[in-house]
Amino acid sequence: MQEDFHGKHDPLFKFETMLKTDDVYFFDSEDFEEIIHHYLAIGKLSLAKKAAKLGLEQHPNAVSIELLRAEIMIFEDKLDLASALLTELQQMDPLNDEIYIQRAHIFSKQDNHEAAINMLENALDKGLHSFDLLEMLGMEFVFTDNYSKAKKYFMECLYIDGQDDSTLCNLMMCFNCLEEFEEGIGYLLEYIDGYPYSHYAWLELGRFYMMELQLSEALKAFDYAILINETHVSAYMEKAGALEMLGQMGDALEVYGDALKLQEPNAYLYYRVGKCYREVGHFEQARLHFFKAVQEDPMMYKAWVGIVNYYIDKKDFEKAISFLYKAIEIDPENDLYDENLDAIHRMLGFQIEEGIDLHVLQHLPKYKVQTWIEWGKLLLRTQSFHLALDVFVRAREYYPKEENIQLHLAGLYLRSNQLHHGQLQLEAALEKDTELVEVLEAYYPRVYKSPSVQKIIRNFLKK
Fold first, then answer.
1. How far apart are CA 142 and CA 122, in angstroms?
2. Which end of the chain is more exposed for a tag (fewer CB within 10 A), N or C?
3. Which tens digits make up the pLDDT trace of 223-254?
4. Model confidence band, residue 4 (pLDDT cutoffs 50, 70, 90)
5. Residue 256's closest CA among 16, 271, 245, 169?
6. CATH number for position 410
């Protein structure tokens, strides 16, 4: 009867049994390779080193075991020792492609990708064309952003093993980075002729069709991917995304429902479902799914914004502000604050239109300077000058030396005849940037034309 992996005749079982006794068993060199690979794969370096040591005691001329010893050294960042050993091995076995790969790996770990490429190309010149060598060469070109060269070597890998999904993924990444979507579609159609049941190829084909906005073709490709592998969640997600782009939100919701049956719910999936519900006017369901998203992942920024927008639409500004605060607290340094800013603008638009007091905004956190400036400019455009002054005064508390804030304070103080404060702010702003004169003229034309302001401007322009 054939033994299973941990049967008593299995090399790994035999090796671990030996470690528990004082006995020493003999193993073939291939057995030692299997044992060492196993321990490396599960991160047990000490056992891998024991196996390599015993392997070389029993097979002192085994280059394959020495190579694994070099790999252990690389794992331990003993790069100089590994390099010296590999140089010695290369003199013994100059046509061993694994030696070139390991030496290139050392260069790559040192971020010397050009040297790694040279090492691997040297192996090619010697007639070595293994899958592993070509794959690593492709990845090194990816690291140097040379996607055209990387693409070439990934294609060669697939010529050797056409069913390697990882390499196909890397190749599609290259087409994507080069924005060669039509070429990618052409390659995939040819690939599918040879491998019609590759669900990954159909999935990638659908994605590339989406890039080209050929949405009906994308849907067909995703359907084939699902037909081949009904448990591949990515295909459902992509299909739902294509349906969203077509405006078929009801159909998209059905597909997202299928995805929810196949995997544990996650924040991104809940967010996408909530977004669809919002589009079809089921706002309570949208709110529910946005809340589920942030419960799964409190860092799901867009779901917080969805909640904020829900309460803005309901004109429940107290709650909108509360959740907006939470959203910003999560990642206050996020440069992608446009949605928060848009939410603020919408809220202010409602409040200005209806004459609602802005007291609920007094507990807002320290926004980025551009958020305050855009907020104030919105109020200026709606002729809400006293509210704009309140905003810029508040902004100055956080950014006392920001010249754009100083300039707007100058304009607002001067138009309300607070001349001393206005002149001080104007001089402080122009001291830093005289081009702000154009902003003053655009937003405060009457102030700009006044003789006293013109005199200040002339003095600064002469400097």
1. 19
2. N
3. 999 999 999 899 999 999 999 999 999 999 99
4. very low
5. 271
6. 1.25.40
Please state, in angstroms and rounded to a whole number, the distance separating the CA atoms of residues 404 and 430: 10
Last residue of a domain, one of 67, 93, 119: 93
Q: Considering only 125-139, 311-325, 391-405, which range has the smallest mean pLDDT?
A: 311-325
Give residue-wise pLDDT tens across range 182-232: 999 999 999 999 999 999 999 999 999 999 999 999 999 999 999 999 998
Structural domain for 66, as ranges: 1-93
Query: What band does 356 get if pLDDT is binned at 50, 70 and 90?
Result: very low
Kindly state the helix (H) or strand (E) to which residue 278 belongs, with its residue range: helix 267-279
**Structure token pair of residue 114:** 């050009």
Would you state the structure tokens that stand for residue 140, as one six-digit string? Answer: 């090194």
Sign of CA dihedral 223, 224, 226, 232: negative
